[in-house]
Amino acid sequence: MISSIRFSFRVARGLAIAAGMCALLTSGAQAAAVDLGLWNDESYPAVSGFGAGIWTVSGDGLSVNQSVNGQPTLFVSDFDVAGLAIEGMVIVNTAGDDDFIGFALGFEPGDADPGSGAADYLLVDWKQGTQGFNFGPPSCTGGSVALEGLAVSRVTGIPTADEFWGHFDEDNATCSPLGHGLVELQRGATLGATGWADNTSYMFRFEFTTTSLKVFVDGVEELNIAGAFNDGRLAFYNFSQSNVTYSAFITEPLLAKDLTSGPDRDGSAWYDDFSDVAGLTLNGDAAQAGTVLRLTPAALWQGGSAFTTDPLTLGPGGSFSTHFAFQISNPGSVPDPDGPGADGVTFIL
């Protein structure tokens, strides 16, 4: 049966551009929407001038906003994540700061409590700009430099704010002995030295087991590590960054056989990009443009579509679920009676 259909779309200055990936995957897995209303927040010990996070869930439970520029803070799921694929969106709704957004995997409720000290989880965090800082008392470790870009680190014990900031584990008997800190494991393949952009949505995908973690951003594999990891919860993470929204998260079981990459997998149609549109029928004004699929030019009264003509058969009693992620950017363009910009994007199954 078909388990999911994924598109990544951008609409810019009247142009509908399909970018990233398009996939039809055959499996028995079923995607499930995540109810963020069941999650709980935790914050690490306060540092001077930095308060605890405030996480506000939307009425439908599909999004949450963190509004405080404060200490390391997490919003923790009600389920364990080993053996799951997890997808969702994150956006920083401001241009006024440049600090950390991210995710924790394998986190256990209470790991941020100073009396615990038992934490052992993976932290995927993303800094917009390189910055040195010393948080001072009550943090007794020295200041450090936070590097621009995406990275994954292993977190153990109760790190200080400085250790979260600089991804290090200081051997300081006074307040942070060795084993209470961070060890950076890998930086992003293309985003390791590139920060997130203001007011821009990013689609994250995590494939997590107790022996591996893969992280994709907008369809590109950024992190891929192996080791012995603890099962535990997913958590959203902010440090010194306000006005961050996480939304539209889904989970599905990881497949025993990977159908999510490569053009020759059984029962799948996969487009890493649109440099080759073989197998797609383009209609109207749709046209290939380098590695993207441009559905309409920047002109009035244009329309275009693209579809695959290769059928995927549903077995007896079969069903399918779908998940779409798209972003509309720079909507101002050619005006018409209902205003400037593109009128919309339609998906037909």
Written description of the protein model:
By secondary structure, the protein is an all-beta fold. The chain has 2 domains: 2-28 and 263-340, no CATH class; 32-253, Jelly Rolls, CATH 2.60.120.200. It is built from 1 helix and 27 strands. It has one helix spanning 161-166, and strands at residues 2-12, 15-26, 32-33, 40-43, 55-57, 63-66, 73-80, 84-92, 100-107, 120-127, 131-133, 144-146, 149-156, 181-187, 202-208, 212-217, 220-226, 233-239, 244-253, 269-271, 280-284, 287-289, 292-294, 304-308, 325-329, 335-336, 339-340. Strands 3, 5, 6, 8, 15, 16, 17 and 19 form an 8-stranded antiparallel sheet that branches. The longest helix has 6 residues, at 161-166. The two termini are 14 Å apart. The model is unreliable at 1-29, 256-268 and 322-330 (pLDDT under 50).
